[in-house]
């Protein structure tokens, strides 16, 4: 595991190092490491930064720069072994396998040979991944320091990589290679609600059917320069009629997904509940791409069920787990949130969290790994969980956050979006077909990202219905 850096940086002199002595360093490759290395070096080889290209390449996924691994060898030599005062003479390396996101490299630098006449030292260098497989090996020669040096370690500033366009591309990539699906858009009568499906159509995600007052839709398109040529428009006199027609179209097989436009949520959802319900309780999931979190984060329910009961939460959790399966997570880690991580009768959500975990143990909830109650910090921070003494496979690395109620969930989601620069997608689950349910304040890119998720869900449904 990675350890906190000491306060001082101190070298080992030529005389202090003997053949066979070694030093180690462990690091895990994160997505932001790839982006930062690319920005620093200018190496934007699509193998490293283009998800779509990488999926068709030799390695089938984005891989880290090989030289990122080699810089870890330089880190050992320059900061610890020998450390300050070391001068590189030469370096020869062999690269045996790629470094993928999440790989943990252990770098070992071992003294092979010393030369008294010029104070040179030859080191064997080796990098193994978490499976013990050789990633890099080679030989380095340095001019070792002869005088002892001990300095206060310079504290570097925090570096945050936030490339919204790249992260937006990652969100859209969940349905890469799939054909567009017909989606009924209810009342797209403002700039963002019309731009979203149009942008999604250009990305090859959906074939929008625009349901609403035709004259108003065309006026909005003309005012904002939105090209809707070739799109089918179904005229409806007002927003309530648009909701009725769009839902009926979905019920009768004319569309494979439903999308909310510029109308109130309850106006659309009342029609959904009447005509598109299943035996499962309908719930909502926010899918968040947060720059400071290593993988997508699902938050549920923050838009549909105001004060869910325990049985409501069973369906909320199961809906989210099944979405995670669709997105390629075979056993998502589900954190049941509360204000504290201990069970207390004074806080109802802690009791329900414990009950949900026991229900999962008994097979009443399947397909995920549940733990709770967990406070928000314990759910998303390994450091916070360790400080609290929490031993859990979920704490610090949750995929799904199940909130106590709509108010808390909505606050969590909006804070991530507006304070943490998260990219958001929103979908409704548990109905006969997937529904894009976004806020009227959401951007076109948020709506398009949501379309990518429902496109994937619609194709999975097609597979299940095949004879």
Describe this structure in words.
Among the domains are: 8-152, Roll (Thiol Ester Dehydrase, Chain A); 278-430, 3-Layer(aba) Sandwich (Isopropylmalate Dehydrogenase), CATH 3.40.718. Helices cover 36% and strands 23% of the residues. It has helices at 31-41, 46-49, 51-55, 66-79, 164-172, 191-202, 214-224, 239-251, 265-275, 310-326, 348-361, 376-380, 382-387, 406-419, 444-465; strands at residues 8-10, 22-28, 87-95, 104-115, 120-128, 134-143, 150-152, 181-186, 206-212, 232-235, 257-260, 283-289, 297-300, 333-337, 369-374, 400-402, 423-429, 435-436. The strands form 3 sheets. It has an 11-stranded mixed beta sheet, with helices on both faces. Strands 2-4-5-6-3 form a 5-stranded antiparallel beta sheet, with helices on one face. Helix 6 crosses helix 15 and helix 8 packs parallel to helix 9. The model has no long low-confidence stretch (mean pLDDT 89).
